[in-house]
Amino acid sequence: MDVATTTDAPPSSGADTIVVGVFEDEGIKHDHGGVLQALVDSGEAKRALRKLAVTHAEGRRYIVAGLGARKDFDPERARVAAAVVVGRAKELSTRVLCWEVPHHVTDAHVGALVEGTLLAAYAFGEYKSETSSDSPGLDTLILSAHDDVSAPAARAAVLSEATNSARNLQNRPANDLTPEALEARARELEGVSVDVLDREGIVAAGMGAFACVAQGSHVEPRLITVRYEPADVTGPLLGFVGKAVTFDSGGISIKPAAKMHEMKFDMSGGAAVLEAVGAIARLGLPVRVAGVIGATENLPSGHAVKPGDIVRAKSGVTIEVNNTDAEGRLVLADCLAHAIDLGAERLVDLATLTGAIVVALGTPYAGLFANDDGWAGEITRAGERTGESVWRMPLHPDYEKLIEGRYADIVNSPTDRGGSASSAAEFLHRFAGDVPWAHIDIAAGAYDNGKPYTPKGGAGWGVRLLVELANGEPASPDIH
Protein backbone atom coordinates (compact mmCIF):
# COMPACT_ATOMS: atom_id res chain seq x y z
CA MET A 1 0.00 0.00 0.00
CA ASP A 2 1.23 3.47 -0.85
CA VAL A 3 1.45 5.96 2.03
CA ALA A 4 1.44 9.72 1.46
CA THR A 5 1.12 12.81 3.64
CA THR A 6 -0.22 16.28 2.95
CA THR A 7 -0.82 19.55 4.75
CA ASP A 8 -3.79 20.26 2.49
CA ALA A 9 -7.32 19.74 3.76
CA PRO A 10 -8.68 16.19 3.27
CA PRO A 11 -11.13 17.11 0.47
CA SER A 12 -8.13 18.17 -1.63
CA SER A 13 -6.50 14.73 -1.32
CA GLY A 14 -8.55 13.06 -4.03
CA ALA A 15 -9.49 10.25 -1.63
CA ASP A 16 -12.78 8.45 -2.16
CA THR A 17 -13.22 8.04 1.62
CA ILE A 18 -12.18 10.55 4.29
CA VAL A 19 -11.88 9.60 7.97
CA VAL A 20 -12.56 12.14 10.70
CA GLY A 21 -12.02 11.11 14.31
CA VAL A 22 -14.09 12.39 17.21
CA PHE A 23 -13.12 12.30 20.88
CA GLU A 24 -15.49 12.16 23.82
CA ASP A 25 -16.36 15.67 25.09
CA GLU A 26 -14.86 17.29 21.97
CA GLY A 27 -16.47 18.48 18.80
CA ILE A 28 -15.30 18.08 15.23
CA LYS A 29 -12.86 20.93 14.64
CA HIS A 30 -13.04 21.00 10.85
CA ASP A 31 -16.56 20.06 9.96
CA HIS A 32 -17.26 19.63 6.29
CA GLY A 33 -20.60 21.19 5.46
CA GLY A 34 -21.80 20.91 9.07
CA VAL A 35 -22.98 17.37 8.44
CA LEU A 36 -20.46 15.51 10.59
CA GLN A 37 -21.10 17.35 13.85
CA ALA A 38 -24.84 16.96 13.30
CA LEU A 39 -24.29 13.22 12.91
CA VAL A 40 -22.46 13.16 16.25
CA ASP A 41 -25.01 15.36 18.00
CA SER A 42 -27.85 13.12 16.86
CA GLY A 43 -26.13 10.08 18.36
CA GLU A 44 -25.87 8.31 15.02
CA ALA A 45 -22.09 8.71 15.14
CA LYS A 46 -20.69 7.40 18.43
CA ARG A 47 -17.62 8.78 20.17
CA ALA A 48 -16.54 5.47 21.73
CA LEU A 49 -13.50 3.68 20.34
CA ARG A 50 -14.33 1.21 17.52
CA LYS A 51 -17.62 2.94 16.70
CA LEU A 52 -18.09 4.15 13.11
CA ALA A 53 -20.67 6.02 11.09
CA VAL A 54 -20.72 6.67 7.35
CA THR A 55 -22.18 9.73 5.67
CA HIS A 56 -21.73 12.02 2.67
CA ALA A 57 -20.93 15.73 2.66
CA GLU A 58 -20.03 18.04 -0.18
CA GLY A 59 -20.11 15.13 -2.59
CA ARG A 60 -17.63 13.03 -0.60
CA ARG A 61 -17.92 9.98 1.60
CA TYR A 62 -16.88 10.32 5.24
CA ILE A 63 -16.30 7.83 8.01
CA VAL A 64 -16.73 9.35 11.47
CA ALA A 65 -14.55 7.26 13.79
CA GLY A 66 -15.00 7.26 17.55
CA LEU A 67 -11.67 7.66 19.35
CA GLY A 68 -12.87 7.46 22.96
CA ALA A 69 -11.52 9.77 25.65
CA ARG A 70 -8.52 11.83 24.58
CA LYS A 71 -6.72 11.07 27.85
CA ASP A 72 -6.87 7.35 26.99
CA PHE A 73 -5.92 7.75 23.34
CA ASP A 74 -2.52 6.10 23.28
CA PRO A 75 -0.81 4.73 20.14
CA GLU A 76 -2.34 1.28 20.61
CA ARG A 77 -5.84 2.77 20.58
CA ALA A 78 -4.85 4.66 17.44
CA ARG A 79 -3.87 1.36 15.81
CA VAL A 80 -7.18 -0.17 16.82
CA ALA A 81 -9.16 2.81 15.52
CA ALA A 82 -7.33 2.65 12.19
CA ALA A 83 -7.86 -1.10 11.92
CA VAL A 84 -11.60 -0.81 12.52
CA VAL A 85 -11.78 1.85 9.81
CA VAL A 86 -10.04 -0.49 7.36
CA GLY A 87 -12.74 -3.10 7.81
CA ARG A 88 -15.46 -0.59 6.94
CA ALA A 89 -13.44 0.94 4.12
CA LYS A 90 -13.10 -2.46 2.50
CA GLU A 91 -16.86 -2.96 2.68
CA LEU A 92 -17.23 0.38 0.89
CA SER A 93 -14.75 -0.70 -1.83
CA THR A 94 -12.45 2.17 -0.89
CA ARG A 95 -9.25 2.46 -2.89
CA VAL A 96 -7.83 5.72 -1.52
CA LEU A 97 -8.35 6.43 2.18
CA CYS A 98 -7.51 9.77 3.80
CA TRP A 99 -7.21 10.18 7.58
CA GLU A 100 -7.56 13.65 9.00
CA VAL A 101 -4.90 13.40 11.71
CA PRO A 102 -6.34 14.60 15.04
CA HIS A 103 -4.75 17.73 16.50
CA HIS A 104 -2.41 17.54 19.52
CA VAL A 105 -1.16 14.00 18.90
CA THR A 106 2.44 12.77 18.78
CA ASP A 107 4.62 11.16 16.13
CA ALA A 108 3.82 7.85 17.81
CA HIS A 109 0.10 8.37 17.18
CA VAL A 110 0.75 9.29 13.56
CA GLY A 111 2.82 6.15 13.09
CA ALA A 112 0.17 4.07 14.82
CA LEU A 113 -2.50 5.25 12.36
CA VAL A 114 -0.28 4.07 9.52
CA GLU A 115 0.52 0.77 11.24
CA GLY A 116 -3.09 0.05 12.11
CA THR A 117 -4.11 0.66 8.52
CA LEU A 118 -1.37 -1.32 6.78
CA LEU A 119 -1.44 -4.21 9.24
CA ALA A 120 -5.23 -4.53 9.14
CA ALA A 121 -5.31 -4.34 5.34
CA TYR A 122 -2.92 -7.31 5.05
CA ALA A 123 -4.23 -10.34 3.19
CA PHE A 124 -2.41 -13.54 2.23
CA GLY A 125 -3.60 -15.09 -1.01
CA GLU A 126 -0.43 -16.48 -2.54
CA TYR A 127 -1.84 -19.97 -3.00
CA LYS A 128 -5.40 -19.06 -3.99
CA SER A 129 -6.36 -20.03 -7.54
CA GLU A 130 -8.87 -17.20 -7.71
CA THR A 131 -9.20 -13.95 -5.81
CA SER A 132 -12.33 -13.54 -3.71
CA SER A 133 -13.34 -10.25 -5.32
CA ASP A 134 -12.92 -8.28 -8.52
CA SER A 135 -12.45 -5.11 -6.46
CA PRO A 136 -8.87 -3.76 -6.57
CA GLY A 137 -9.03 -3.09 -2.82
CA LEU A 138 -7.51 -0.44 -0.60
CA ASP A 139 -4.20 0.61 -2.13
CA THR A 140 -3.41 4.13 -0.86
CA LEU A 141 -3.38 5.81 2.54
CA ILE A 142 -3.09 9.59 2.84
CA LEU A 143 -2.55 11.41 6.12
CA SER A 144 -3.78 15.00 6.19
CA ALA A 145 -2.23 17.05 9.01
CA HIS A 146 -1.72 20.72 9.70
CA ASP A 147 2.06 20.21 9.73
CA ASP A 148 4.56 17.78 8.20
CA VAL A 149 4.15 14.19 9.42
CA SER A 150 6.06 12.52 6.60
CA ALA A 151 8.90 11.22 8.82
CA PRO A 152 6.81 9.22 11.33
CA ALA A 153 4.54 8.03 8.52
CA ALA A 154 7.46 6.75 6.46
CA ARG A 155 9.01 5.00 9.45
CA ALA A 156 5.71 3.32 10.29
CA ALA A 157 5.32 2.18 6.70
CA VAL A 158 8.70 0.43 6.87
CA LEU A 159 7.76 -1.27 10.15
CA SER A 160 4.40 -2.37 8.77
CA GLU A 161 5.92 -3.73 5.58
CA ALA A 162 8.48 -5.69 7.61
CA THR A 163 5.74 -7.08 9.85
CA ASN A 164 3.69 -8.11 6.83
CA SER A 165 6.76 -9.73 5.27
CA ALA A 166 7.18 -11.79 8.44
CA ARG A 167 3.51 -12.75 8.17
CA ASN A 168 4.09 -13.88 4.60
CA LEU A 169 6.86 -16.18 5.80
CA GLN A 170 4.69 -17.52 8.61
CA ASN A 171 1.70 -18.21 6.40
CA ARG A 172 3.56 -20.15 3.73
CA PRO A 173 3.26 -23.95 4.06
CA ALA A 174 6.18 -25.99 5.31
CA ASN A 175 6.65 -27.75 1.97
CA ASP A 176 7.44 -24.32 0.50
CA LEU A 177 8.85 -22.32 3.42
CA THR A 178 11.89 -24.50 4.12
CA PRO A 179 15.12 -23.48 5.85
CA GLU A 180 16.58 -22.89 2.39
CA ALA A 181 13.66 -20.58 1.59
CA LEU A 182 14.42 -18.58 4.75
CA GLU A 183 18.02 -18.31 3.59
CA ALA A 184 16.78 -17.02 0.23
CA ARG A 185 14.68 -14.38 1.98
CA ALA A 186 17.68 -13.33 4.08
CA ARG A 187 19.72 -12.82 0.92
CA GLU A 188 17.00 -10.52 -0.47
CA LEU A 189 17.44 -8.04 2.38
CA GLU A 190 19.38 -4.91 1.51
CA GLY A 191 22.10 -3.32 3.60
CA VAL A 192 23.00 -6.47 5.56
CA SER A 193 25.60 -9.22 5.34
CA VAL A 194 24.47 -12.84 5.38
CA ASP A 195 26.42 -15.89 6.52
CA VAL A 196 24.93 -19.39 6.38
CA LEU A 197 25.92 -22.79 7.75
CA ASP A 198 24.42 -25.94 6.22
CA ARG A 199 24.11 -29.31 7.95
CA GLU A 200 27.79 -30.11 7.50
CA GLY A 201 28.80 -26.69 8.79
CA ILE A 202 26.50 -26.95 11.81
CA VAL A 203 28.03 -30.29 12.77
CA ALA A 204 31.56 -29.02 12.15
CA ALA A 205 30.88 -26.04 14.42
CA GLY A 206 30.13 -28.42 17.29
CA MET A 207 26.43 -27.55 17.42
CA GLY A 208 25.29 -30.98 18.52
CA ALA A 209 22.04 -29.73 20.05
CA PHE A 210 20.89 -28.02 16.84
CA ALA A 211 22.16 -30.86 14.66
CA CYS A 212 20.25 -33.54 16.57
CA VAL A 213 16.93 -31.81 15.93
CA ALA A 214 17.68 -31.56 12.21
CA GLN A 215 18.83 -35.14 11.72
CA GLY A 216 15.31 -36.60 11.40
CA SER A 217 14.51 -34.72 8.20
CA HIS A 218 16.07 -34.93 4.74
CA VAL A 219 15.39 -31.19 4.40
CA GLU A 220 18.65 -29.34 4.96
CA PRO A 221 18.86 -27.13 8.09
CA ARG A 222 20.34 -23.67 8.04
CA LEU A 223 22.03 -21.48 10.63
CA ILE A 224 21.46 -18.01 9.19
CA THR A 225 23.35 -14.99 10.49
CA VAL A 226 22.22 -11.57 9.26
CA ARG A 227 24.38 -8.62 10.32
CA TYR A 228 23.81 -4.90 10.07
CA GLU A 229 26.92 -2.95 11.05
CA PRO A 230 27.24 0.58 9.63
CA ALA A 231 30.84 1.60 9.08
CA ASP A 232 30.56 4.71 11.24
CA VAL A 233 28.94 3.00 14.25
CA THR A 234 31.14 1.55 16.99
CA GLY A 235 28.64 0.78 19.75
CA PRO A 236 27.93 -2.59 21.36
CA LEU A 237 26.64 -5.46 19.23
CA LEU A 238 23.00 -6.33 19.85
CA GLY A 239 22.13 -9.99 19.32
CA PHE A 240 18.68 -11.13 18.18
CA VAL A 241 18.13 -14.90 18.14
CA GLY A 242 15.11 -16.57 16.55
CA LYS A 243 13.75 -20.09 16.58
CA ALA A 244 12.73 -21.13 13.07
CA VAL A 245 11.46 -24.71 13.17
CA THR A 246 9.70 -24.65 9.81
CA PHE A 247 7.61 -27.66 10.77
CA ASP A 248 7.45 -29.28 14.19
CA SER A 249 5.85 -32.71 14.31
CA GLY A 250 7.36 -33.31 17.73
CA GLY A 251 9.78 -35.86 16.31
CA ILE A 252 9.71 -39.31 17.93
CA SER A 253 7.73 -37.73 20.80
CA ILE A 254 5.11 -36.98 18.19
CA LYS A 255 2.35 -34.43 18.69
CA PRO A 256 -1.38 -35.23 18.50
CA ALA A 257 -2.84 -34.89 15.01
CA ALA A 258 -5.28 -32.14 16.02
CA LYS A 259 -3.88 -28.75 15.01
CA MET A 260 -0.55 -30.22 13.99
CA HIS A 261 -0.91 -28.26 10.75
CA GLU A 262 -0.41 -25.11 12.82
CA MET A 263 3.14 -26.20 13.57
CA LYS A 264 4.25 -24.47 10.38
CA PHE A 265 4.12 -21.39 12.63
CA ASP A 266 6.96 -22.72 14.80
CA MET A 267 9.34 -20.58 12.78
CA SER A 268 7.69 -17.34 13.89
CA GLY A 269 10.55 -16.16 16.09
CA GLY A 270 13.02 -16.58 13.25
CA ALA A 271 10.77 -14.69 10.84
CA ALA A 272 10.52 -11.80 13.30
CA VAL A 273 14.28 -11.60 13.79
CA LEU A 274 14.96 -11.75 10.05
CA GLU A 275 12.52 -9.01 9.13
CA ALA A 276 13.45 -6.84 12.12
CA VAL A 277 17.11 -6.74 11.06
CA GLY A 278 15.99 -5.92 7.52
CA ALA A 279 13.84 -3.05 8.79
CA ILE A 280 16.66 -1.70 10.97
CA ALA A 281 18.86 -1.61 7.87
CA ARG A 282 16.16 0.13 5.80
CA LEU A 283 15.73 2.75 8.50
CA GLY A 284 19.48 3.25 8.78
CA LEU A 285 19.49 3.13 12.57
CA PRO A 286 22.86 3.91 14.20
CA VAL A 287 23.23 0.49 15.83
CA ARG A 288 25.09 -2.77 15.31
CA VAL A 289 22.88 -5.85 15.15
CA ALA A 290 23.42 -9.55 14.51
CA GLY A 291 20.38 -11.72 13.89
CA VAL A 292 20.89 -15.47 14.34
CA ILE A 293 18.17 -17.78 13.03
CA GLY A 294 18.19 -21.52 13.60
CA ALA A 295 16.08 -23.08 10.83
CA THR A 296 15.19 -26.76 10.64
CA GLU A 297 12.36 -29.26 10.55
CA ASN A 298 11.66 -31.62 13.46
CA LEU A 299 10.45 -34.93 12.07
CA PRO A 300 10.45 -38.60 13.09
CA SER A 301 12.42 -41.05 10.98
CA GLY A 302 14.98 -43.80 11.27
CA HIS A 303 17.59 -41.07 11.57
CA ALA A 304 15.77 -38.94 14.15
CA VAL A 305 17.09 -38.18 17.61
CA LYS A 306 15.55 -40.55 20.16
CA PRO A 307 14.36 -39.98 23.73
CA GLY A 308 17.32 -40.77 25.95
CA ASP A 309 19.97 -39.73 23.44
CA ILE A 310 22.73 -37.49 24.80
CA VAL A 311 24.21 -34.69 22.71
CA ARG A 312 26.89 -32.08 23.29
CA ALA A 313 26.01 -28.43 22.66
CA LYS A 314 28.41 -25.89 21.16
CA SER A 315 29.16 -24.58 24.65
CA GLY A 316 30.32 -28.04 25.75
CA VAL A 317 27.26 -28.74 27.93
CA THR A 318 25.86 -32.26 27.53
CA ILE A 319 22.11 -32.66 27.20
CA GLU A 320 19.91 -35.73 27.62
CA VAL A 321 17.07 -35.45 25.14
CA ASN A 322 14.19 -36.97 27.09
CA ASN A 323 11.53 -35.29 24.95
CA THR A 324 12.12 -34.69 21.24
CA ASP A 325 9.16 -32.28 21.21
CA ALA A 326 11.17 -29.88 23.39
CA GLU A 327 13.34 -29.20 20.36
CA GLY A 328 13.21 -25.42 20.19
CA ARG A 329 15.42 -24.98 23.22
CA LEU A 330 17.99 -27.33 21.69
CA VAL A 331 18.14 -25.19 18.55
CA LEU A 332 18.30 -21.97 20.56
CA ALA A 333 21.04 -23.29 22.85
CA ASP A 334 23.52 -23.40 19.99
CA CYS A 335 22.18 -20.21 18.38
CA LEU A 336 22.70 -18.28 21.63
CA ALA A 337 26.24 -19.63 21.92
CA HIS A 338 26.89 -18.60 18.32
CA ALA A 339 25.61 -15.07 18.99
CA ILE A 340 27.95 -14.79 21.97
CA ASP A 341 30.85 -15.97 19.81
CA LEU A 342 29.99 -13.18 17.37
CA GLY A 343 30.49 -10.70 20.21
CA ALA A 344 26.89 -9.89 21.13
CA GLU A 345 26.85 -7.82 24.31
CA ARG A 346 23.08 -7.91 24.77
CA LEU A 347 20.85 -10.78 23.76
CA VAL A 348 17.16 -11.35 23.21
CA ASP A 349 15.67 -14.51 21.76
CA LEU A 350 12.16 -14.97 20.35
CA ALA A 351 10.52 -18.37 20.18
CA THR A 352 7.20 -20.15 20.11
CA LEU A 353 8.62 -22.26 22.90
CA THR A 354 5.97 -23.61 25.27
CA GLY A 355 2.27 -24.30 25.49
CA ALA A 356 2.57 -23.46 29.18
CA ILE A 357 2.95 -19.75 28.46
CA VAL A 358 -0.33 -19.83 26.52
CA VAL A 359 -2.09 -21.26 29.57
CA ALA A 360 -0.42 -18.76 31.88
CA LEU A 361 -0.93 -15.53 29.92
CA GLY A 362 -3.25 -16.11 26.97
CA THR A 363 -2.88 -13.92 23.89
CA PRO A 364 -2.59 -10.41 25.44
CA TYR A 365 1.00 -10.95 26.59
CA ALA A 366 4.15 -12.78 25.60
CA GLY A 367 6.21 -14.22 28.42
CA LEU A 368 9.43 -12.34 29.23
CA PHE A 369 12.28 -13.98 31.12
CA ALA A 370 15.46 -12.02 31.77
CA ASN A 371 18.65 -12.16 33.81
CA ASP A 372 18.97 -8.36 33.99
CA ASP A 373 16.34 -5.98 35.37
CA GLY A 374 17.44 -3.03 33.26
CA TRP A 375 17.29 -5.05 30.04
CA ALA A 376 13.90 -6.44 31.00
CA GLY A 377 12.64 -2.92 31.59
CA GLU A 378 13.82 -1.70 28.19
CA ILE A 379 12.08 -4.60 26.47
CA THR A 380 8.88 -4.08 28.44
CA ARG A 381 8.74 -0.39 27.57
CA ALA A 382 9.49 -1.08 23.92
CA GLY A 383 6.60 -3.54 23.84
CA GLU A 384 4.28 -1.00 25.43
CA ARG A 385 5.13 1.48 22.68
CA THR A 386 4.55 -1.00 19.85
CA GLY A 387 1.50 -2.75 21.25
CA GLU A 388 3.42 -6.02 21.66
CA SER A 389 3.05 -6.45 25.38
CA VAL A 390 5.26 -8.69 27.50
CA TRP A 391 4.80 -9.87 31.06
CA ARG A 392 7.85 -10.74 33.11
CA MET A 393 7.94 -14.30 34.37
CA PRO A 394 10.29 -15.78 36.97
CA LEU A 395 13.72 -17.30 36.68
CA HIS A 396 14.80 -19.06 39.87
CA PRO A 397 17.36 -21.66 41.01
CA ASP A 398 14.49 -24.01 41.88
CA TYR A 399 13.53 -24.13 38.19
CA GLU A 400 17.16 -24.73 37.32
CA LYS A 401 17.15 -27.80 39.56
CA LEU A 402 14.33 -29.25 37.45
CA ILE A 403 16.62 -29.61 34.44
CA GLU A 404 19.52 -31.25 36.27
CA GLY A 405 20.48 -34.46 34.45
CA ARG A 406 21.13 -37.95 35.75
CA TYR A 407 23.23 -39.14 32.81
CA ALA A 408 24.14 -35.78 31.25
CA ASP A 409 24.68 -32.28 32.58
CA ILE A 410 21.06 -31.32 31.97
CA VAL A 411 17.85 -32.65 30.43
CA ASN A 412 15.91 -30.77 27.81
CA SER A 413 12.53 -31.29 29.48
CA PRO A 414 11.85 -31.92 33.18
CA THR A 415 9.50 -34.70 34.22
CA ASP A 416 7.75 -32.25 36.57
CA ARG A 417 5.40 -30.24 34.35
CA GLY A 418 4.88 -27.49 36.93
CA GLY A 419 6.45 -24.19 35.93
CA SER A 420 7.46 -25.59 32.56
CA ALA A 421 7.67 -22.18 30.85
CA SER A 422 10.17 -21.10 33.51
CA SER A 423 12.15 -24.33 33.41
CA ALA A 424 12.41 -23.96 29.61
CA ALA A 425 13.73 -20.43 30.11
CA GLU A 426 16.21 -21.67 32.70
CA PHE A 427 17.46 -24.16 30.11
CA LEU A 428 18.18 -21.27 27.73
CA HIS A 429 19.68 -19.22 30.57
CA ARG A 430 22.39 -21.89 30.80
CA PHE A 431 23.59 -20.90 27.31
CA ALA A 432 23.27 -17.11 27.55
CA GLY A 433 26.69 -16.48 29.05
CA ASP A 434 27.27 -13.47 31.28
CA VAL A 435 25.68 -10.80 29.09
CA PRO A 436 22.24 -9.24 29.64
CA TRP A 437 19.84 -11.73 28.06
CA ALA A 438 16.11 -12.04 27.65
CA HIS A 439 13.89 -14.79 26.32
CA ILE A 440 10.46 -13.92 24.93
CA ASP A 441 8.08 -16.86 24.62
CA ILE A 442 5.70 -15.78 21.85
CA ALA A 443 3.70 -19.01 21.60
CA ALA A 444 0.36 -17.33 22.37
CA GLY A 445 0.58 -14.25 20.16
CA ALA A 446 2.53 -15.46 17.15
CA TYR A 447 -0.60 -16.25 15.12
CA ASP A 448 -4.39 -15.97 15.39
CA ASN A 449 -3.96 -13.53 18.28
CA GLY A 450 -7.28 -11.73 17.82
CA LYS A 451 -6.00 -8.15 17.58
CA PRO A 452 -8.10 -5.92 15.31
CA TYR A 453 -5.10 -5.23 13.09
CA THR A 454 -4.04 -8.89 12.87
CA PRO A 455 -6.00 -10.97 10.34
CA LYS A 456 -6.16 -14.73 10.88
CA GLY A 457 -2.80 -16.42 10.48
CA GLY A 458 0.67 -15.14 11.20
CA ALA A 459 0.87 -11.95 13.26
CA GLY A 460 4.48 -10.91 12.62
CA TRP A 461 4.72 -10.52 16.40
CA GLY A 462 7.98 -9.02 17.59
CA VAL A 463 9.22 -7.30 14.44
CA ARG A 464 8.24 -3.83 15.62
CA LEU A 465 9.31 -4.53 19.21
CA LEU A 466 12.82 -5.54 18.14
CA VAL A 467 13.21 -2.49 15.92
CA GLU A 468 11.96 -0.26 18.74
CA LEU A 469 14.41 -1.91 21.12
CA ALA A 470 17.27 -1.22 18.73
CA ASN A 471 16.11 2.36 18.27
CA GLY A 472 16.28 3.02 22.02
CA GLU A 473 14.19 5.07 24.39
CA PRO A 474 12.39 7.92 22.59
CA ALA A 475 13.10 11.58 23.20
CA SER A 476 10.35 14.03 24.13
CA PRO A 477 7.60 13.59 21.53
CA ASP A 478 6.74 16.13 18.86
CA ILE A 479 3.13 17.29 19.16
CA HIS A 480 1.13 17.85 15.98
UniProtKB/TrEMBL annotation:
GO terms for molecular function: manganese ion binding; metalloaminopeptidase activity. It is found in: Cytoplasm. It comes from Solirubrobacter ginsenosidimutans. It catalyses: Release of an N-terminal amino acid, preferentially leucine, but not glutamic or aspartic acids; Release of an N-terminal amino acid, Xaa-|-Yaa-, in which Xaa is preferably Leu, but may be other amino acids including Pro although not Arg or Lys, and Yaa may be Pro. Amino acid amides and methyl esters are also readily hydrolyzed, but rates on arylamides are exceedingly low. Binds 2 manganese ions per subunit. CDD domains: Peptidase_M17. Mn(2+) 2 binds at residues 243, 248, 266, 327. Its EC number is 3.4.11.1, 3.4.11.10. The keyword Cytoplasm applies. GO terms for biological process: proteolysis. It holds the Pfam family Peptidase_M17. Mn(2+) 1 binds at residues 248, 325, 327. Belongs to the peptidase M17 family. GO terms for cellular component: cytoplasm. InterPro entries: Leucine_aapep/pepB (IPR011356), Macro_dom-like (IPR043472), Peptidase_M17_C (IPR000819), Peptidase_M17_leu_NH2_pept (IPR023042), Peptidase_M17_N (IPR008283). The lineage of its organism: Bacteria, Bacillati, Actinomycetota, Thermoleophilia, Solirubrobacterales. The active site is at 255, 329. It comes from the Bacteria. Keywords: Aminopeptidase, Cytoplasm, Hydrolase, Manganese, Metal-binding, Protease. Presumably involved in the processing and regular turnover of intracellular proteins. Catalyzes the removal of unsubstituted N-terminal amino acids from various peptides. Its cofactor is Mn(2+). This is Probable cytosol aminopeptidase. Residues 323-330 form the Cytosol aminopeptidase domain.
